[in-house]
Design goal:
Elements lengths: L1 H10 L1 E3 L3 E3 L1 H5 L4 H14 L7 E5 L3 H9 L7 E7 L8 E7 L6 E7 L8 E9 L3 H12 L3 E11 L4 H7 L4 E11 L4 E4 L3
Helix pairs in contact: 3-4
Bound molecules: guanosine-5'-monophosphate.
Length: 194
């Protein structure tokens, strides 16, 4: 998606440790008009009428998922919560996710009330790096007996392993921008043609 690539080139900051900061339009301040265009694009890429739920993970996926949902017949958005303590009363699905940016492992939960066997789920997140967050979400969907219709990502870092890992599993992954290479020293960034 050229519009997103241009915005990343203009306002993205490349940090040491393979981190791309996009706080000015995506991760802190949010450009809702851009999110709306991204939502349109997700709909074009995932035309299935079966999609009846969008699943994301707090916090950064929520804004993108909510705006995208308006292009999916206002499908409800469920966000997996990062939990400090494991809930033992059996009313949640739980998995573990290692955070790329915070370098720690979280328990991540979704209430059984909001995900079940009738759901056809589109997973949406802001970034795909090593794939831990998305694999955690997939685990939650599978625990619920729901169907994964696809994974929509705003920015994939194509030089990390997550995209290949998920596609090799046969999962339909679409990323609006794929960073092929980036260099913190020179500030240069290359996108994959798609
Ligand atoms: P993964 O689980 O695929 O390794 O990493 C994806 C998660 O880590 C995303 O939910 C995102 O919040 C965060 N993340 C990974 N890499 C970056 C990055 O370069 N920039 C930002 N802003 N977040 C990232």
């Amino acid at each position: 998606m050229k519009l997103l690539e241009e915005r990343i080139r203009k306002d993205g900051l490349i940090k040491e440790g393979n981190v791309l900061k996009v706080d000015s339009f995506l991760n802190h301040q949010m450009d809702v008009e851009l999110f709306n265009r991204m939502g349109e694009e997700f709909r074009r890429l995932f035309p299935s009428e079966k999609i009846n739920k969008i699943l994301t993970i707090e916090a950064s996926g929520i804004g993108i998922a909510c705006i995208a949902a308006q292009h999916f017949g206002n499908a409800p958005v469920v966000f997996a919560k990062k939990s400090e303590s494991i809930n033992l009363d059996g009313d949640t699905y739980c998995t573990k996710v290692e955070s790329f940016t915070h370098k720690r492992v979280y328990d991540v939960i979704v209430s059984k009330k909001y995900l079940g066997p009738d759901d056809h789920v589109l997973i949406i997140d802001d970034f795909l790096a090593n794939g831990c967050a998305v694999l955690g979400l997939i685990d939650l969907v599978q625990s619920a007996g729901a169907t994964i219709e696809g994974v929509g990502i705003a920015v994939e870092k194509g030089f990390q392993t997550g995209g290949k890992l998920l596609r090799d599993k046969g999962i339909h992954v679409e990323s609006l921008a794929i960073v092929e290479a980036m260099d913190a020293k020179t500030g240069t960034i290359e996108f994959r043609e798609q």
